[in-house]
Amino acid sequence: MTSEWQTPAGEAAVGWIADDVAAEFPELGLRFLEVPAVGGRSPQSIRDRLAFLSNRFRGAQAVTMRQDPIPWAYRVFYRHIGLDPDEQRTPLEALAVRRLLEGAFRSQGLLEDARTLALLETGVPIWAVDAAHRTGALGIRPAEPGELLGRTARGTTGLPKLPRGRLVVADSVRPLAVLFGDLGAGLEVSSGSERMVLFSVQVAGVPELHVEEALWNCLEVLAEAVR
Amino acid sequence: MDLLERPLPTTPDVRRAAPAVELDERAARHSLRQQVSKLEGELCAAFTTASPFLQFDWSVPGRGGVRGVHGPRILGIGELEALRDALAEHLRSARMAMTERAELEGANRRLVESMLLEPGRHKFVRVRSEDLGERACGAWEVRPRLGLVGMLMGWWQVKLSSGCPLATGPRPERRGSTVQLGLTATSSGPAKPQALVSGN
Fold first, then answer.
1. pTM of the model as a whole
2. Residues spanned by the domain of A158
Protein backbone atom coordinates (compact mmCIF):
# COMPACT_ATOMS: atom_id res chain seq x y z
CA MET A 1 0.00 0.00 0.00
CA THR A 2 2.85 2.35 0.87
CA SER A 3 4.11 2.38 -2.72
CA GLU A 4 0.78 3.75 -3.87
CA TRP A 5 1.30 6.77 -1.66
CA GLN A 6 4.48 7.55 -3.59
CA THR A 7 2.31 8.75 -6.49
CA PRO A 8 3.19 12.41 -6.95
CA ALA A 9 0.24 14.75 -6.90
CA GLY A 10 1.56 16.26 -10.12
CA GLU A 11 0.33 13.11 -11.82
CA ALA A 12 -3.22 13.83 -10.76
CA ALA A 13 -5.63 13.36 -13.63
CA VAL A 14 -7.14 16.40 -15.30
CA GLY A 15 -10.91 16.38 -15.16
CA TRP A 16 -13.15 17.33 -18.05
CA ILE A 17 -15.26 20.49 -18.18
CA ALA A 18 -18.50 20.51 -20.16
CA ASP A 19 -18.30 22.68 -23.28
CA ASP A 20 -20.94 25.20 -22.20
CA VAL A 21 -19.28 25.58 -18.80
CA ALA A 22 -15.77 25.84 -20.26
CA ALA A 23 -16.98 28.51 -22.68
CA GLU A 24 -18.19 30.63 -19.76
CA PHE A 25 -15.34 29.85 -17.36
CA PRO A 26 -12.28 29.04 -19.47
CA GLU A 27 -9.97 28.89 -16.44
CA LEU A 28 -12.12 26.49 -14.46
CA GLY A 29 -10.38 23.18 -13.86
CA LEU A 30 -10.62 19.98 -11.89
CA ARG A 31 -7.84 17.63 -10.77
CA PHE A 32 -8.45 14.24 -9.21
CA LEU A 33 -6.48 11.33 -7.89
CA GLU A 34 -7.46 7.86 -6.72
CA VAL A 35 -5.73 6.54 -3.62
CA PRO A 36 -6.40 3.87 -0.99
CA ALA A 37 -9.05 4.96 1.50
CA VAL A 38 -7.93 5.79 5.01
CA GLY A 39 -9.91 6.57 8.10
CA GLY A 40 -9.83 6.55 11.83
CA ARG A 41 -8.18 8.97 14.21
CA SER A 42 -5.22 11.13 13.32
CA PRO A 43 -1.86 10.32 14.89
CA GLN A 44 -0.49 12.72 17.49
CA SER A 45 1.92 14.36 15.02
CA ILE A 46 -0.97 15.50 12.82
CA ARG A 47 -2.98 16.72 15.77
CA ASP A 48 0.09 18.66 16.88
CA ARG A 49 0.31 20.29 13.46
CA LEU A 50 -3.33 21.33 13.72
CA ALA A 51 -2.69 22.78 17.18
CA PHE A 52 0.38 24.62 15.89
CA LEU A 53 -1.60 26.16 13.04
CA SER A 54 -4.44 27.01 15.45
CA ASN A 55 -2.03 28.99 17.60
CA ARG A 56 -0.66 30.84 14.61
CA PHE A 57 -4.11 31.84 13.40
CA ARG A 58 -5.43 35.24 14.56
CA GLY A 59 -8.75 37.04 14.25
CA ALA A 60 -7.14 39.73 12.11
CA GLN A 61 -6.23 37.05 9.58
CA ALA A 62 -9.86 36.01 9.37
CA VAL A 63 -10.83 39.58 8.53
CA THR A 64 -8.14 40.27 5.95
CA MET A 65 -8.24 36.78 4.45
CA ARG A 66 -10.78 37.73 1.81
CA GLN A 67 -8.26 40.11 0.25
CA ASP A 68 -5.62 37.42 -0.18
CA PRO A 69 -5.35 36.26 -3.81
CA ILE A 70 -6.52 32.65 -3.44
CA PRO A 71 -9.51 33.18 -1.09
CA TRP A 72 -10.47 36.22 -3.16
CA ALA A 73 -10.41 34.15 -6.35
CA TYR A 74 -12.83 31.65 -4.83
CA ARG A 75 -15.05 34.46 -3.53
CA VAL A 76 -15.25 35.99 -6.99
CA PHE A 77 -16.04 32.64 -8.56
CA TYR A 78 -18.79 32.14 -6.00
CA ARG A 79 -20.30 35.43 -7.16
CA HIS A 80 -20.01 34.38 -10.79
CA ILE A 81 -21.98 31.20 -10.19
CA GLY A 82 -24.66 32.93 -8.17
CA LEU A 83 -23.56 32.14 -4.63
CA ASP A 84 -23.19 34.66 -1.85
CA PRO A 85 -19.80 34.00 -0.23
CA ASP A 86 -20.98 35.70 2.96
CA GLU A 87 -23.88 33.28 3.23
CA GLN A 88 -22.32 30.08 1.88
CA ARG A 89 -18.71 30.69 2.85
CA THR A 90 -15.75 29.68 0.71
CA PRO A 91 -13.94 26.65 2.19
CA LEU A 92 -11.06 28.61 3.73
CA GLU A 93 -13.31 31.27 5.19
CA ALA A 94 -15.61 28.59 6.61
CA LEU A 95 -12.57 27.02 8.24
CA ALA A 96 -11.52 30.39 9.67
CA VAL A 97 -14.96 30.95 11.16
CA ARG A 98 -14.87 27.44 12.65
CA ARG A 99 -11.48 28.22 14.18
CA LEU A 100 -12.81 31.42 15.76
CA LEU A 101 -15.93 29.73 17.12
CA GLU A 102 -14.29 26.56 18.41
CA GLY A 103 -11.05 28.17 19.51
CA ALA A 104 -8.90 25.72 17.56
CA PHE A 105 -8.76 23.53 14.48
CA ARG A 106 -10.11 20.46 16.20
CA SER A 107 -9.17 17.04 14.88
CA GLN A 108 -12.06 15.40 13.02
CA GLY A 109 -10.43 12.23 11.83
CA LEU A 110 -7.50 11.54 9.56
CA LEU A 111 -9.09 12.33 6.20
CA GLU A 112 -10.74 15.53 7.42
CA ASP A 113 -7.51 16.63 9.08
CA ALA A 114 -5.51 16.01 5.91
CA ARG A 115 -8.01 18.10 3.94
CA THR A 116 -7.91 20.83 6.58
CA LEU A 117 -4.10 20.99 6.59
CA ALA A 118 -3.97 21.16 2.80
CA LEU A 119 -6.57 23.91 2.78
CA LEU A 120 -4.73 25.91 5.43
CA GLU A 121 -1.40 25.59 3.68
CA THR A 122 -2.56 26.43 0.17
CA GLY A 123 -6.06 27.93 0.35
CA VAL A 124 -7.26 25.32 -2.15
CA PRO A 125 -10.07 22.99 -1.03
CA ILE A 126 -10.05 19.22 -1.52
CA TRP A 127 -12.96 16.83 -1.42
CA ALA A 128 -13.04 13.05 -1.22
CA VAL A 129 -15.57 10.53 -2.53
CA ASP A 130 -15.72 6.77 -2.33
CA ALA A 131 -14.02 5.41 -5.45
CA ALA A 132 -16.37 2.42 -5.56
CA HIS A 133 -19.11 4.68 -6.92
CA ARG A 134 -16.98 6.31 -9.58
CA THR A 135 -17.30 5.46 -13.24
CA GLY A 136 -14.74 7.08 -15.52
CA ALA A 137 -13.13 10.47 -15.17
CA LEU A 138 -14.49 13.28 -13.05
CA GLY A 139 -15.63 16.56 -14.50
CA ILE A 140 -17.86 19.58 -14.08
CA ARG A 141 -21.13 20.01 -15.93
CA PRO A 142 -24.64 21.42 -15.48
CA ALA A 143 -27.19 18.95 -14.14
CA GLU A 144 -29.73 17.49 -16.53
CA PRO A 145 -33.43 17.78 -15.73
CA GLY A 146 -34.55 15.15 -13.23
CA GLU A 147 -31.07 14.00 -12.21
CA LEU A 148 -30.66 12.77 -8.67
CA LEU A 149 -27.74 13.42 -6.34
CA GLY A 150 -26.41 10.44 -4.45
CA ARG A 151 -26.84 6.73 -4.26
CA THR A 152 -28.47 4.57 -1.65
CA ALA A 153 -28.97 0.86 -1.12
CA ARG A 154 -32.70 1.38 -1.58
CA GLY A 155 -32.27 2.84 -5.04
CA THR A 156 -33.32 6.38 -5.71
CA THR A 157 -35.85 6.74 -2.90
CA GLY A 158 -35.44 9.95 -0.95
CA LEU A 159 -32.59 11.33 -3.02
CA PRO A 160 -32.70 15.06 -3.77
CA LYS A 161 -33.56 16.00 -7.33
CA LEU A 162 -31.16 18.51 -8.87
CA PRO A 163 -32.61 21.56 -10.60
CA ARG A 164 -31.75 21.88 -14.26
CA GLY A 165 -28.48 23.73 -14.78
CA ARG A 166 -27.12 23.21 -11.27
CA LEU A 167 -23.32 22.92 -11.59
CA VAL A 168 -22.15 19.54 -10.37
CA VAL A 169 -19.00 17.47 -10.14
CA ALA A 170 -19.86 14.27 -11.97
CA ASP A 171 -18.34 11.14 -13.38
CA SER A 172 -19.37 9.73 -16.73
CA VAL A 173 -22.62 8.38 -15.27
CA ARG A 174 -23.97 10.46 -12.43
CA PRO A 175 -23.45 13.63 -10.39
CA LEU A 176 -21.27 13.06 -7.34
CA ALA A 177 -21.49 16.44 -5.65
CA VAL A 178 -22.82 19.93 -6.10
CA LEU A 179 -19.96 22.24 -7.10
CA PHE A 180 -18.62 23.72 -3.82
CA GLY A 181 -21.58 22.06 -2.10
CA ASP A 182 -22.62 18.82 -0.53
CA LEU A 183 -21.47 15.40 -1.64
CA GLY A 184 -24.19 13.05 -2.79
CA ALA A 185 -25.70 10.87 -0.08
CA GLY A 186 -23.96 7.50 0.16
CA LEU A 187 -20.90 8.67 -1.78
CA GLU A 188 -18.83 9.76 1.22
CA VAL A 189 -15.70 7.90 2.22
CA SER A 190 -16.69 5.59 5.05
CA SER A 191 -15.09 2.87 7.14
CA GLY A 192 -16.10 0.34 4.47
CA SER A 193 -14.42 2.21 1.63
CA GLU A 194 -11.39 0.56 0.03
CA ARG A 195 -10.32 3.38 -2.26
CA MET A 196 -11.20 7.04 -2.55
CA VAL A 197 -10.96 9.81 -5.08
CA LEU A 198 -9.52 13.14 -3.98
CA PHE A 199 -10.48 16.04 -6.17
CA SER A 200 -9.91 19.77 -6.21
CA VAL A 201 -11.46 22.60 -8.18
CA GLN A 202 -9.31 25.31 -9.76
CA VAL A 203 -10.84 28.68 -10.57
CA ALA A 204 -9.55 31.77 -12.35
CA GLY A 205 -6.78 33.37 -10.31
CA VAL A 206 -5.62 30.15 -8.67
CA PRO A 207 -2.35 28.86 -10.17
CA GLU A 208 -2.19 25.20 -11.11
CA LEU A 209 0.80 24.87 -8.83
CA HIS A 210 -1.39 25.61 -5.82
CA VAL A 211 -3.86 22.91 -6.77
CA GLU A 212 -1.08 20.36 -7.17
CA GLU A 213 0.45 21.46 -3.89
CA ALA A 214 -2.88 21.08 -2.10
CA LEU A 215 -3.22 17.50 -3.36
CA TRP A 216 0.43 16.82 -2.55
CA ASN A 217 -0.03 18.21 0.99
CA CYS A 218 -3.10 16.09 1.55
CA LEU A 219 -1.30 12.96 0.29
CA GLU A 220 1.72 13.69 2.46
CA VAL A 221 -0.42 13.86 5.59
CA LEU A 222 -2.24 10.65 4.70
CA ALA A 223 1.03 8.88 3.84
CA GLU A 224 2.54 10.01 7.13
CA ALA A 225 -0.33 8.39 9.00
CA VAL A 226 -0.13 5.18 6.98
CA ARG A 227 3.65 4.75 7.51
CA MET B 1 -52.82 54.69 -53.30
CA ASP B 2 -51.80 51.23 -54.37
CA LEU B 3 -49.33 51.13 -51.59
CA LEU B 4 -51.92 52.08 -48.97
CA GLU B 5 -54.36 49.44 -50.15
CA ARG B 6 -51.78 46.69 -50.08
CA PRO B 7 -52.39 44.26 -47.14
CA LEU B 8 -49.90 44.25 -44.27
CA PRO B 9 -47.49 41.31 -44.24
CA THR B 10 -48.26 38.61 -41.69
CA THR B 11 -45.92 37.85 -38.80
CA PRO B 12 -44.04 34.91 -40.37
CA ASP B 13 -43.21 37.04 -43.38
CA VAL B 14 -41.85 39.76 -41.14
CA ARG B 15 -39.64 37.24 -39.36
CA ARG B 16 -38.37 35.89 -42.64
CA ALA B 17 -37.63 39.36 -43.93
CA ALA B 18 -35.81 40.52 -40.75
CA PRO B 19 -32.02 40.39 -40.98
CA ALA B 20 -30.40 37.81 -38.76
CA VAL B 21 -28.90 39.56 -35.72
CA GLU B 22 -26.68 37.49 -33.47
CA LEU B 23 -26.06 39.02 -30.13
CA ASP B 24 -22.71 38.20 -28.61
CA GLU B 25 -24.13 37.47 -25.21
CA ARG B 26 -21.08 35.52 -24.10
CA ALA B 27 -18.89 38.61 -24.45
CA ALA B 28 -21.46 40.63 -22.54
CA ARG B 29 -21.54 38.07 -19.75
CA HIS B 30 -17.74 38.05 -19.66
CA SER B 31 -17.71 41.83 -19.34
CA LEU B 32 -20.30 41.72 -16.57
CA ARG B 33 -18.29 39.08 -14.70
CA GLN B 34 -15.25 41.33 -14.85
CA GLN B 35 -17.30 44.16 -13.37
CA VAL B 36 -18.56 41.84 -10.64
CA SER B 37 -14.97 40.80 -9.86
CA LYS B 38 -13.87 44.42 -9.57
CA LEU B 39 -16.80 45.33 -7.33
CA GLU B 40 -16.23 42.27 -5.15
CA GLY B 41 -12.59 43.32 -4.74
CA GLU B 42 -13.59 46.83 -3.72
CA LEU B 43 -16.20 45.46 -1.31
CA CYS B 44 -13.55 43.21 0.27
CA ALA B 45 -11.24 46.20 0.67
CA ALA B 46 -14.04 48.23 2.24
CA PHE B 47 -14.83 45.37 4.62
CA THR B 48 -11.21 45.10 5.71
CA THR B 49 -10.92 48.85 6.20
CA ALA B 50 -14.15 49.19 8.14
CA SER B 51 -13.76 46.16 10.42
CA PRO B 52 -14.43 45.78 13.24
CA PHE B 53 -16.09 49.04 14.25
CA LEU B 54 -18.59 49.61 11.46
CA GLN B 55 -21.84 47.76 11.97
CA PHE B 56 -22.91 46.95 8.44
CA ASP B 57 -24.56 44.03 6.68
CA TRP B 58 -21.95 43.04 4.09
CA SER B 59 -23.93 40.23 2.55
CA VAL B 60 -25.15 40.67 -1.02
CA PRO B 61 -27.61 37.91 -1.91
CA GLY B 62 -26.48 35.55 -4.66
CA ARG B 63 -28.45 35.00 -7.84
CA GLY B 64 -28.19 31.25 -7.97
CA GLY B 65 -31.78 30.66 -6.97
CA VAL B 66 -33.69 28.16 -9.04
CA ARG B 67 -37.31 27.92 -7.95
CA GLY B 68 -36.35 29.17 -4.50
CA VAL B 69 -33.40 26.77 -4.09
CA HIS B 70 -29.97 28.35 -4.07
CA GLY B 71 -27.04 26.71 -5.75
CA PRO B 72 -24.31 27.20 -8.31
CA ARG B 73 -25.20 27.67 -11.96
CA ILE B 74 -24.33 29.73 -15.00
CA LEU B 75 -25.99 33.10 -14.66
CA GLY B 76 -27.68 34.88 -17.53
CA ILE B 77 -27.14 38.49 -18.54
CA GLY B 78 -30.09 39.76 -16.55
CA GLU B 79 -28.97 38.00 -13.40
CA LEU B 80 -25.39 39.22 -13.77
CA GLU B 81 -26.65 42.76 -14.30
CA ALA B 82 -28.81 42.51 -11.19
CA LEU B 83 -25.85 41.14 -9.24
CA ARG B 84 -23.57 43.92 -10.48
CA ASP B 85 -26.13 46.57 -9.59
CA ALA B 86 -26.65 45.06 -6.13
CA LEU B 87 -22.91 44.97 -5.49
CA ALA B 88 -22.48 48.55 -6.70
CA GLU B 89 -25.36 49.75 -4.55
CA HIS B 90 -24.01 47.84 -1.57
CA LEU B 91 -20.55 49.26 -2.07
CA ARG B 92 -21.99 52.78 -2.26
CA SER B 93 -23.93 52.22 0.98
CA ALA B 94 -20.83 50.82 2.67
CA ARG B 95 -18.73 53.80 1.62
CA MET B 96 -21.41 56.21 2.87
CA ALA B 97 -21.51 54.39 6.20
CA MET B 98 -17.70 54.51 6.39
CA THR B 99 -17.72 58.24 5.64
CA GLU B 100 -20.32 58.87 8.34
CA ARG B 101 -18.28 56.80 10.74
CA ALA B 102 -15.11 58.73 9.87
CA GLU B 103 -16.92 62.03 10.42
CA LEU B 104 -18.19 60.80 13.79
CA GLU B 105 -14.68 59.74 14.83
CA GLY B 106 -13.29 63.10 13.70
CA ALA B 107 -15.91 64.97 15.72
CA ASN B 108 -15.12 62.82 18.76
CA ARG B 109 -11.40 63.54 18.40
CA ARG B 110 -12.11 67.26 18.30
CA LEU B 111 -14.32 66.85 21.36
CA VAL B 112 -11.51 65.12 23.28
CA GLU B 113 -9.14 67.93 22.33
CA SER B 114 -11.54 70.55 23.62
CA MET B 115 -12.09 68.44 26.76
CA LEU B 116 -8.35 68.51 27.37
CA LEU B 117 -8.17 72.28 26.77
CA GLU B 118 -11.22 73.23 28.80
CA PRO B 119 -12.35 70.40 31.08
CA GLY B 120 -14.67 72.69 33.04
CA ARG B 121 -16.87 73.23 30.01
CA HIS B 122 -17.35 69.49 29.42
CA LYS B 123 -18.33 68.21 32.85
CA PHE B 124 -18.81 64.43 32.96
CA VAL B 125 -18.51 64.09 29.18
CA ARG B 126 -17.29 60.60 28.29
CA VAL B 127 -15.86 59.47 24.94
CA ARG B 128 -14.96 55.83 24.39
CA SER B 129 -11.70 55.03 22.59
CA GLU B 130 -13.72 52.79 20.27
CA ASP B 131 -15.63 55.87 19.10
CA LEU B 132 -12.32 57.46 18.19
CA GLY B 133 -11.50 54.55 15.90
CA GLU B 134 -8.96 53.08 18.28
CA ARG B 135 -8.67 49.38 19.06
CA ALA B 136 -8.80 49.85 22.80
CA CYS B 137 -11.32 49.62 25.62
CA GLY B 138 -10.46 52.89 27.39
CA ALA B 139 -12.62 55.99 27.69
CA TRP B 140 -11.80 59.67 28.04
CA GLU B 141 -13.91 61.27 30.74
CA VAL B 142 -14.05 64.66 32.45
CA ARG B 143 -14.23 64.09 36.21
CA PRO B 144 -13.87 66.32 39.26
CA ARG B 145 -10.51 66.23 41.04
CA LEU B 146 -10.93 65.00 44.63
CA GLY B 147 -14.58 64.06 44.10
CA LEU B 148 -17.14 66.34 45.74
CA VAL B 149 -14.50 68.91 46.73
CA GLY B 150 -13.45 69.23 43.09
CA MET B 151 -17.07 69.63 42.00
CA LEU B 152 -17.60 72.47 44.48
CA MET B 153 -14.27 74.15 43.71
CA GLY B 154 -14.52 73.71 39.93
CA TRP B 155 -11.45 71.47 39.65
CA TRP B 156 -12.07 69.33 36.60
CA GLN B 157 -9.69 66.99 34.86
CA VAL B 158 -9.73 64.55 31.94
CA LYS B 159 -9.04 60.96 32.88
CA LEU B 160 -8.32 58.07 30.53
CA SER B 161 -9.54 54.84 32.00
CA SER B 162 -7.20 51.86 32.00
CA GLY B 163 -7.56 49.33 29.16
CA CYS B 164 -9.71 46.29 28.61
CA PRO B 165 -11.01 44.22 31.52
CA LEU B 166 -9.68 40.69 31.88
CA ALA B 167 -11.43 38.27 29.58
CA THR B 168 -12.21 35.83 32.38
CA GLY B 169 -12.55 38.27 35.27
CA PRO B 170 -10.47 38.17 38.44
CA ARG B 171 -9.26 34.68 39.26
CA PRO B 172 -10.11 33.47 42.79
CA GLU B 173 -7.09 33.37 45.07
CA ARG B 174 -5.74 29.93 45.95
CA ARG B 175 -4.11 29.38 49.28
CA GLY B 176 -0.43 28.46 49.40
CA SER B 177 0.15 28.54 45.70
CA THR B 178 2.05 30.73 43.29
CA VAL B 179 -0.12 32.55 40.82
CA GLN B 180 0.76 34.18 37.55
CA LEU B 181 1.88 37.75 36.81
CA GLY B 182 4.65 37.84 39.38
CA LEU B 183 2.36 37.72 42.39
CA THR B 184 2.83 35.27 45.22
CA ALA B 185 -0.06 34.15 47.34
CA THR B 186 0.78 33.15 50.87
CA SER B 187 -1.32 31.18 53.28
CA SER B 188 -1.38 34.06 55.76
CA GLY B 189 -2.44 36.92 53.56
CA PRO B 190 -3.31 38.32 50.18
CA ALA B 191 -1.08 38.27 47.10
CA LYS B 192 1.96 40.54 47.17
CA PRO B 193 4.23 41.70 44.36
CA GLN B 194 7.15 39.37 43.74
CA ALA B 195 9.70 42.12 44.39
CA LEU B 196 8.41 42.74 47.92
CA VAL B 197 8.42 39.06 48.82
CA SER B 198 12.02 38.62 47.70
CA GLY B 199 13.06 41.65 49.69
CA ASN B 200 14.50 43.65 46.79
1. 0.78
2. 13-226
